């Protein structure tokens, strides 16, 4: 099946972001994509100073538009993420809609991005956001898909749980920056893919040098062998790739690490 990653240029105008995102989703569908993914914070600028201003309830304006375009195009749509307000708390939340427009999954970013690289970048999502507390998976006729958002990708245990639960594709809407992007964006995707012998796709906003937070871009798809099979540059674009589950099965048969794990010595478990 064909996967499309929409590397969207995000502006400060929510209505423009929604309109352009939906237009690119339609374009991806017309080009044969059955699963389409948007980037982290696709409807607003990324930054702690923006989350409260742009936050919405779910369902709300942005997710209603996603539901409508998923149904119109008869696709599975991973709605990147938006700032969500619920019960007085803010979350960084990814919604997934099916070909009938129904909500299939809602993933709240589990690991909040609180980092300090002296002289390069300091960022603290926990100043405004609350963490999610659950894994998020959904089924398609093609395969089961596991969800994470950006910083979630750094936590190998999360990906391993998804693999154990039968996911063959992991999708991470993310916005790595100009410090962490060149160093770790592709490396982490390849690591998660090889460790768990599955496909990993990470979809970023396009780079905007004028933004307060400059995203690295380079939306990428990695196969279970650890090869980069599709990759964007920094500009707004749509990345297409065909996910070959027969290749996944062959790799798992050739190097059967999943059946060779020493569960008598170690284990990773899902607690809730």
UniProtKB/TrEMBL annotation:
It catalyses: 2-oxoglutaramate + H2O = 2-oxoglutarate + NH4(+); 2-oxosuccinamate + H2O = oxaloacetate + NH4(+). Its EC number is 3.5.1.3. Pfam families: CN_hydrolase. Keywords: Hydrolase. GO terms for molecular function: omega-amidase activity. Residues 1-245 form the CN hydrolase domain. GO terms for biological process: asparagine metabolic process; glutamine metabolic process; oxaloacetate metabolic process. PROSITE patterns: CN_HYDROLASE. Gene3D superfamilies: Carbon-nitrogen hydrolase. It comes from the Eukaryota. GO terms for cellular component: mitochondrion. Belongs to the carbon-nitrogen hydrolase superfamily. NIT1/NIT2 family. This is omega-amidase. It comes from Drymodes brunneopygia. The gene is Nit2.
């Amino acid at each position: 099946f064909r996967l499309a990653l929409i590397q969207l240029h995000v502006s400060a105008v929510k209505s423009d972001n929604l309109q352009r995102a939906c237009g690119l989703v339609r374009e991806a569908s017309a080009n044969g994509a059955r699963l389409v993914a948007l980037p982290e914070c696709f409807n607003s600028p990324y930054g702690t100073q923006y989350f409260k201003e742009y936050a919405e309830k779910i369902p709300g304006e942005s997710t209603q538009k996603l539901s409508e375009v998923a149904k119109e195009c008869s696709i599975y749509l991973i709605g990147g993420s938006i700032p969500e307000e619920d019960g007085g708390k803010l979350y960084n939340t990814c919604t997934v809609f099916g070909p009938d427009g129904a909500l299939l999954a809602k993933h709240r970013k589990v690991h909040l991005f609180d980092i300090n690289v002296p002289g390069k970048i300091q960022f603290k999502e926990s100043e405004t956001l609350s963490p999610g507390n659950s894994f998020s998976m959904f089924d398609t006729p093609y395969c089961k898909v596991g969800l994470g958002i950006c910083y979630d990708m750094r936590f190998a245990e999360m990906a391993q749980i998804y693999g154990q639960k039968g996911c063959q594709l992991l999708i991470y809407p993310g916005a790595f920056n100009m410090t962490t992007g060149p160093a770790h964006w592709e490396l982490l995707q390849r690591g998660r893919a090889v460790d768990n012998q599955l496909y990993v796709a990470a979809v970023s906003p396009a780079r905007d040098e004028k933004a307060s937070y400059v995203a690295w871009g380079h939306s990428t798809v990695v196969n279970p062998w650890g090869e980069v099979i599709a990759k964007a540059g920094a500009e707004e674009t749509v990345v297409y790739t065909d996910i070959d589950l027969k290749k996944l099965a062959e790799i798992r048969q050739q190097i059967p690490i999943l059946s060779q794990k020493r569960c008598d010595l170690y284990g990773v478990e899902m607690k809730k």
